[in-house]
Amino acid sequence: MKNSTTDTTKYVNRRERIGGLIYVLLFFIIGAGSCAWLLVSQSDVAQIFSRKDLVGAKMKRQQDFHRDQERIAADCDLIVEAISSFDPGITAVYEKNDIQFMINELKKNYDRNHLDKRYMVYLHLADFYQMWFNDRQDLWRLHTNLVNIRQNLDECELGLEKKQDKLKTGTR
After folding, report:
1. Among 148, 111, 104, which residue's Cα sits nearest to residue 130?
2. Whose C-alpha in 8, 62, 75, 172 is 20 to 30 A from the C-alpha of 19?
């Protein structure tokens, strides 16, 4: 059985429905707008876009890095030329020390700016030049050892031939 007091339905006409929808939409837009304004005004996003000093400092760091690149490119050319012309057979200790000094100066550029990852290239370049310099010295030592071994082998062959000749002439 239906209870007539609980089954009552309220009919809302079209005009009231549209008015209610506009009312709810208006409150939603005002609420969302105020939340967005509050978030943007209280966050660092607004400060990042409004602070020109951060952008200026970043541009200055980039310009400093480009200036360092130009200066270090010239230093790298000097290092390449010094290593290429280095002759380990000549006992000029000052040349070796100069090359080591230039390589260490290249490493110091990274040490001064170790927080900036762009400067890592200078550390890698210094390691590369150090390996190249060491390999060049090791190669010279190996070459010298090979020359000495060849000379010793030639002397042994000559001595062996002389002894063989003595043995041949002594037996006859």
Report:
1. 104
2. 8
